Amino acid sequence: MKIKLLFSLLLLSAVAYAQSPGWQGKFEQLDQLLPTPNEYRSGSGAPGPRYWQQRADYVINAELNDVNQSITGSETITYFNNSPDVLKYLWLQLDQNINDKESNTLKTATSTVRDSIDTKSIASSLVLHDFDGGFKIKSVKDATGKALPYTINATMMRIDLPQALAPGQKFSFSVEWSFNINDRVKGYTTNDGRSGMEYFPKDGNYLYIIAQWFPRMCVYDDVVGWQNKQFLGQGEFTLTFGNYVVNLTVPADHIVAATGMVQNAKEVLTPEQYARFEKAKTSFDKPVIIATQQEAEQREKTKSTAKKTWKFYAENVRDFAFATSRKFIWDAQAVKIGDKTPLAMSYYPKEGNPLWEQESTKAVKYTLETYSKYTIDYPYPQATSVHAASLGMEYPMICFNYGRPLEDGTIPERTKWGMIGVIVHEVGHNFFPMIINSDERQWTWMDEGLNTFVQYRTQVENYPDMPQRRGPASTIVPYMKGNADLQRPLMVNSESVVRANFGNEQYAKCATGLNMLRETVMGPELFDKAFKEYASRWAFKHPKPADLFRTMEDASAVDLDWFWRGWFYTTDVCDQSIEQVRWLTVRTENSKVENKGVSAKRGDLASGSSTNQANDFSNGPQPITVLPTPDYFYGEFRSRVDDKAVLAKLENKNLYEVTLTNNGGLIMPVIIEWTYKDGSKELERIPAEIWRTNEQRITKVFVKDKEVTKVVLDPKMETTDISLEDNVFPKVQSPSKIDQLKKK
What we know:
CATH topology of the domain at 241-437: Zincin-like
Strand content: 25-35%
Structural class: alpha+beta
Number of strands: 31
Shape: elongated
Strand order of the largest sheet: 4-7-2-1-13-17-15
Largest sheet: 7 strands, mixed
Radius of gyration: 32 Å
């Protein structure tokens, strides 16, 4: 009966505690929000013993028409059903259909017209360009040549199978298709499909960057079945791994960059270019120029009407993209990564020089080296950066990047750093999501945010003079102080994010969060081991958010549920403040150390006195009395605390009772900088769990040998605190002091 009564009292106490104004459950575990672990995905965040994923192999033959800017192609897809499910139909992505005039992207786009609007903007927003975009599907057939029924739903195509595909079976089918290549400068849709052409009026040539250019298999997985979210432009792609054999027919004087490695280099290159290409494979100190600017300028003039077919092979990739132009200069350099020597390569027109020849391949090299250190060794044979105006977009082994000098060759600092940053970012996408293959259509932060974090590490370690836009906590504070109605939690679908905040949220906020975990919450050693474990576990697989959250905790023994809950599931902000600091000293001359039935109440020993609540230390310390411990405080214990020894340790000490408030709702560690009377400083770090029993207001007493003259919260701006003026004691009286704190 007593046990039942005690349990009831404890339960009532817990309920009262949970319902108290200062407690909102920010330290609750995430178990009820995350998917239940199962045999496919374990509670540790690792793939389960029966984890599976599908596979799709492609053989593609395509021709680019440089006269009418179109592509015609055919493909044979072999789809492997590794799932435990029977499949009656297959779904393919038709992402080029975003350029169709009837696309949902155009129908759902909002727009306004203002006075003196420019022609480019109004033509794009009102769809005034005449362009016949989107896939033209000529046929869909099985391996015997028999037509297969199919249904197109905007950017998706369903193929009905002649008989259900059982687990362990494979099915081969072919698709014939064509489409017109969009002119990127005209902006047919909000994102141009991240692919298209650029025309150069001075020499009359085109530069093509081609992606989402063939019907591709949708992902079928253990969490959602068939991926069924339409391509509206903002959310990117979710794709299945496989092997690619791709034969690209282009004008004979074109240079082609693509996913994978060229298989017939001797046939498509001149003898001199082929010799340079072979030399580049062992050039570790600097790039070798394979196709020179002089050769490119000559090709621009002659404009061959003959054709050549470039043959590529790519193994275990999730997509295939390419770029082609007679304007391309091409350089390459070998990089040592573990036991492999991949090529870092760059393709660019003369309009990109001298900047691209100086910086592009070097940036590719630095990216492969640094990302390999923090994740896994780069597994592919090459990584390519292609120059394309006003763009940054990524695909396996190839990416398209902006950064064009002025016409006189002048390179503004902003252009240089912007170009280096976008190359590091887009090449880094080879790791997230091309290898650690997350669902970009649903969880943008899982590739953009994680990638931006490692981009920041790469830039800091290789470009110490480079201004950093995303990563440091201080850089995201302006966004977090912005309009809360326009902000979204990280854990939302990509299309729900307000376009104006897309970069701040899905890139910068996630990257900042990871950087805070590394530098402030976990420490570099624990973080790096856990992050590398996540990359290793999920390389060439399909991770979900829960797999990242669980792995980071499993591999570090750090409970981070409070962090995921606050930073990823809410739009709360960090706004800690110093409400009060009380300076106390122990009065020892009148303290009684003999324990002779002294009657004392707990409240008498508490520090709740409201005296000495000045806004500075000018009134001096408040003396307090420490009494001997009454016998009944010891309960059944026979031994006693040495009262004299305790008092001796407090003699001549300064006690500082600090009361902090959390005004923004976001839980963060407490970082306090103490400035002493002798001018010295001390930085004290307190884990976020200090808020676990009251998430709004806490008080803690600190014992110091020296007299304190100043207390500052988060002096290095590590926690994204949006209000610095209330982080200082004595209270800051003038804006100049706030400015000084910000400059620190």
